[in-house]
# Entry
Amino acid sequence: MTVTIGLFVAIWNKISLTQMNQSKKRKRTLPFDKSKQIAFIDEFIIINQAGETMVFLSHCTHLGCKINQTNNSKLVCPCHGSEYDLDGQVIKGPAYKNLRAVNFEISENSSQIEIEN
Amino acid sequence: MAAGKKHKTTFGTIALSLFCLVLFSGVLLAIPFDADSPYLSISSIMVTNPWASLIRNLHYWSSQFFLVFSLIHLYDHFHHKERIGLKASMALRLSLGVLIIFLAMLTGFLLKGDADSLQARQILETLTQRIPLIGSSLAYSLLGNADSFQLIYVHHIATFTVFITIVMVEHSRRFWPSAFEFLLTTVGTLLVSYLFSAPLHDNQNPTVKGPWYFVGFQEILHWFSHPEWTLLILVLMLALVYIVNTDKGKLVFISKRSLLIFTGLYLLLTIIGLFFRGEHWTWTYPGAANYNYNVLHNFKSPMVKFYPDFKPDEAVTAPIIIGRKESCLICHNQTHGFVDAHKPEAIGCFSCHGGDPFATDKNQSHRNIILIPGNLINASQSCGTMQCHPNIVERVPTGLMSTLSGMISVDRFVFNEQDNPDQLTDVHQLRNSPADEHLKNLCVRCHLGNLKTEIGPVTEMSRGGGCLACHLNYCSEAEKELTENTNETREFHPSVSLKITNNHCFGCHSRSGRISTNYEGWHETTLDASEMPNDYNYRLVEGSRVFIKEPEDVHHKAGMECIDCHHSYELMGDGKHYAHQEDQQDVQCSDCHFSGNGNTIAASDLDNESALIAALRFGNINNRTLLKTQKHEHALINTSIENDSVFLYSKNSGKKRQMKAPTTICARNNAHQNMACSSCHSAWAPSCIGCHNSYDPNEPGYDMIRNGEKRGSWVEYIGTYAAKEPALGIRVSEEKTEVIPVTPGMVLTIDKKSYPQSKGDSVIFHRLFAPTAPHTTSAKVRDCKSCHNNPVALGFGEGELTYKVADGKGRWSFNATYEDDPNDGLPADAWTGFLENREGTVSTRTNVKPFTLAQQQEILTVGTCLNCHDENSGVMMQSLNNYQELLKKTSNHCILPDWNQH
# Structure
């Protein structure tokens, strides 16, 4: 019985990890609008301020809820009210980690942004 | 069931019946449900297929009751049996069964695919991922790819269901419930399913919550910065269930007590989560602002209508709106009049009007409908939702058109209730002081928060209305339909658009400073409507106010509208609180009329709001260079620099005009460099003196905040209105000192004797002038004498200002037209005494003053020259370059004032 369970767990682990790796999207190309100070697109928050662009994962670092709204220029998690400033820094819990910044590249004509996931 | 054993109804057997009902309804529900687009398929079920909707409700309610009865059954066992004594393996499966039941329920919740479900999925994924070693694999195996519901669906209908079935059969040793119990539970659950639909979030309300049995846990999660530790609570609970099922003695007793206490606490947390948590999980309570919307709204649950108010075919062909089927458009399918962005095919009806988008009869669909969306009280639920204009709606309440800060602050200062007229105030903070009552009786109807309560176009009688105050437009068909007022579904809908005309501004801005009427060239008189001459030079406003023609503003003559100068951040606020209008007002004459290089911005660098408005108004402007304001650096989207020329496009008509640079006189820096453009270019300004206010406890009055009639009111007795060149004063700010036009803003007496429980002086007198933006711009400026030899311009009031020479010495004298007021000894229309200093706060701003004695002397010295020299003479032209030097070269004929003689 133990061997069977062990075998099952091993195969399960192998299948799920392989599938997970295959399904990971390495890069996403999304439309870019530098006039938009805050854009919630897909899994990302794109911030344009003071001539600089930053991209964060839109998932709250507390429990992963998708942040999709602002309140007085703060990014607010809809699930438990964690707040972040536009630099992704936590300013109100329960989250304690800053939003995760991701690498990106803006196309030459500034119409698209390629984001590493 | 063991043969011959008498059947006994228990909570467990009812749970078994309910589980069978869950299975049967689940099989039926699988027919219309589409795991590829769950939200759309469920909304379609609700809107287009009442029988499927009933089955969905049956599936939902039977599963909820199954959970409840299973837990009660568990309690029943624990309560009545001192020792259960199951085998370890079976106890383990049963304990796991409790977890699996919750997982089956939770995956069912996730399969709605609505806003609640998507966030719950994120939480479940994150929590699972944080389980050491196997977390990531487990989360992926449970939930699959982020954009797919396939694996969740499989687990829901197969993995968990099979597990529960096996455990139940093993536990109860029965496959089927008794016919009677099954019938009873089916009938009961069907009834509930008919009356109450299973929940589906409208994806617009910002409050998101998990299923009811999860909100207690959501409350716990919210306490923890490291929420993964809360998983230990689950493990502990399962362990306690296991111990109670297998162990004996004191450990069982402690475990039972622990479970009971936890269950009690969890119930309390569930109630808190359900009824006392609102948007962003913030604390709220019944009676709090927006409680219904933030909390109760998500409990809405339309009854199944087997015969909806439309034909099934109409429902099927209705458009899909923002990923869902919306029932509103099945009946309101021929409505016209919208701008493209607001067409129902794009945003539906629900986005603005609320109601219930999934109900299928009129009454249920229209429950809690917002008849007039755009009022500030509901703007966050309509215009300001996340998909629409949240940033604008957030900042509108901070703007002066919403707060009326200046109006309130000045009034309170005049009533001696504030130390200065520059404090930040808000119309929503008015109380019952004499000043606040005065405002409520006479002044504060004109704020954006004032509710628009009746449908219909914006007229000169309109006040407030939030977003609609400026953006509402009725086409002629919509107006006609409104007038005919039939009970049929209307075909024409007013548009909510960027077409903001002068008429939208007129209602409020034709009062007080009267800039709308000034701009169009109308001056208010004290005539009654019955006294108005039948003459095109007269105009009746609001049915009672009589205006007389005066020169219109040069910009109005050129066809420009208010919004051609004023931009969105001025009108809708920029998120900051300002005390007075000149602080919030951004655009200045010199932003457009300049010599040399302007303050420019490339179209590609516009902020999103400006870029969006520009694109909607003018299409592609990518290659344009635009002007931006010098004061707050906001883009003027209707300007363009082309070949060193500046052009302005009318925002509504698109008409293009070239803008003129200021003349050399304006650009000269040696003299008049501190003059505001409006101090010379304002042809006239309305002036009102001799105002008296008293409180009459028997006067029928009106409360403009409550919008209701009342007994007892402040009554205003006006003096005289006049249209004349404005007086001038000095405004000192951090950036500059400038000469500006002023008018008698508050020259008045206030009689508080009859005001209930009034404190302080019973009669108050004030002589305050106010800075003004007359909006009567003239290309031709006032001449030199109109300032230097004009007692009104100097602040002395009307009268005879004469210069006499006697014994070789010059002397200015002034004989006022109006008698001296006994309160301060100054003529009724004066701001300052002739050749006197006036100290203290003597205007409606602390930083605006009349000319000092020294400044009066300087001005009148030039006036002395103008008595003999024409303003265009060579001498006067030279005086503009270096006046002090010129004074040293005066001839014997020139006798300047001897100020010691005054």
Remarks:
- Strands of chain A lie at 27-31, 38-41, 44-49, 52-57, 69-71, 74-76, 83-84, 90-92, 104-106, 112-116.
- The mean pLDDT of chain A is 85.
